[in-house]
# Entry
Amino acid sequence: MEPNQQTDEWQFYEKPLNNLKYDSVFPVVSAVVLAFVGFYLFFYFTGTEYGSIGHAKRIYGLFVVFNVFAMITCIISLGQIPSFTATKQFSLKLTISVSCSAIGNTADYLLWLFKENEFKQSEITNLLFMTALILAISGFVGLGRLCKVKLSKKSAILYYMVSVIFIILPFFYNYFCFFKNAPANSLTHKEFIFGLLYSLGIAHLASLGIYYWLNSKGTMRFAIRLFSIGAILLSVGCMFYSYSFLSNSVSSIPSHPLHIILALGYVIIGLGVKKTAEITNEVFNINSTPFPPAQALIEVFGYSRGMDLYSLMESEIKEAVAAREKAEEANHAKSMFVAMMSHELKTPLTAIKGYGQILTDPKNSISMLKVNEIAEQIVNNSNNLQEIIESVLRFSQLETGKYSTETSQIALNSFIEKFVSSFVKRNNLSENHLSVVSPNESVSLNIDISALHHILQNLLSNALKFGQNKPILLEFATDINNLIIIVKDQGIGVSEQYAERVFEPFFQISQGNSRKYGGSGLGLTIVSQIVKYLGGNIKFQSKPGEGSRFEILLPGVIIKENEEKHVS
# Structure
């Protein structure tokens, strides 16, 4: 699955993020610039000489303050990022990188301030700066992977171009120093050589920053652009800073305005880590529902772990939604069942009780003819009650898998004659109400008689109920060794929007106590499930006002003549 691919079944909610703006960045950046400008203006108006010890110590001290501020921002923000995430990994490297720089610059400042040694004379601090550079490059490489930025020939060409620029620009900047005025002290030469090597490293950092700015994608690109700006500022600042030892005295270096660029670089990288924490926490907010999309998880956790989490969450959400829908359906079915039973059972019971009270009341003098009519009504209502109870029990057997079939050999025409005669008599139908079409030739079936009886009984009862006393057609046909049963009525029909629901349990277009037509609402459900048990299929066609047509195919139930002789 691709990172941005979503399944057809699930369209995950794209969570809008509030932390995709740079509103909090501009005040901090402005504060850094204004602080340095304020210091320079203060020293200018107070007559403090540029490059003097007092001037240098205060300017460099302000730079160290912002460097430490960036370190603290990184550390606090790092603690807010969830563990075991891809953002945590690269943020950790950048935090350590900024911390190494802050510790190195602070150490240089303290050694220079209290021991009155020459500025930038410690080799240990140089090692810290190299460590910071290596970690920064490593962190940036991980950052690129997270944002799907692949290093290619273009990135290599960009690096070579930036490296050349980083060497040529300082060369022209210090042209006269290279050939005429280069101070001949070891400290300057050491810083120059270190600066040259450092420039090649920061050129790589700058080229990555430019490349990521142009090619980064996804939510994290808002944080990446801050890292890119910070890296470019630090790279440019360090480039000129290293070569400035050729054209300036060591004591005046701390006063150089390049510290504004360096301070901005560190602070903006610190804000980048802060922005990463904000985006990570908002995207992966465990209290938010629904869960974040796959793309956000990939951006936060990396492709492999992000897709694993997405797959796990997708599976769990599907299971939870399916379970909820199933529970809702069960509750709805339960409500429908209670409503149906309260109505359908009450009707025949009320009739039976009423007729029974008439017969048992000694005050009533009833003729034998009337007694027979009442008895017939009691029997009919008892049959209706029995039919409802049997339907519920049969449905329960089908639902729980306890329904069993037992096949036997029967003659189709003989079965049709007996069944139709019983059905017509039981429902007091006229001869023209039910038309039967059966095969002319003798056909034998190997089928469960009870199952076939239930299928016909429920289909014809349904046609009778919704047929508006219009003719009903029952047709039997054969197709090789398959039996085809067709029941067609000319009743109210069903609109297309309800056609797929006619086989649902308890379904009737009129529901609850407002059900216009009686019955358990299980007849067609039982037919559908029995047909399925027999390995057949059922087709349904209907038009409102024109009636309905059911066609059932039961495969392999017809016995051929040679098979019949073999059986006998």
